[in-house]
Amino acid sequence: MPIASPSRFLALLGLTLGSVIPAAPALAHPHVWVTTKAEVAYGEGGRVTGIRHAWTFDASYSAFVTQGLDKNNDGTLTPDELAGLAAENTGNLAEFGYFTKMKVAGKEQPFADPAEPRMAMEGGKLTLSFLLPLKAPVAQGRGVTAVEVYDPTFFVSFTLAEGADAARLVGAPQGCAATVTRPKADPGAESKTADAKPGMSEAFFEALTSASNYGVQFANRIIVACP
Known about the structure:
This protein is of the alpha+beta class.
């Protein structure tokens, strides 16, 4: 999974730090919060075919990134008005490995190009959904399918949603079941600042290199086991 430097990810999201958090000159990571849901997809012969993500962004990011997209000025953003943004963001995520790792029977799987990008605005929060297919379907056998979702630099905080629909299986063989593991820390507190965590300043994160993997401690994990 490539390392996304803060500046590059800001560019990806079409953001500037000041635009997101204008009154906070030294906020530590994260800067964007995403609540995730995932569907692990199975196909013919019980092979794993990919994963469908649904990422709901925090209200600040949602409001900023959708400025000017209400083309008919009716005060409502429709999926059609958001279609271009969905396609652009999904395509750009390739550079960051979609912040997703999937292993089937212990072997990491490469992803093909994403498909079916879609955005919807509900309750002031933007949700991006897209299908991330494997390059080739893989038999799970008696092994497990393991999915991790995280940003290595923790610029973005990914948190699995609460509830049974945080991780679902689609078309899985009978008896398969998914379990989820959330990070012990609580990175979702949007008021968390550098002052609140001494030593974890913006400079610390700017110094992260491609050899760093700070964000793995905040990884959300889905494990699928089959009989």
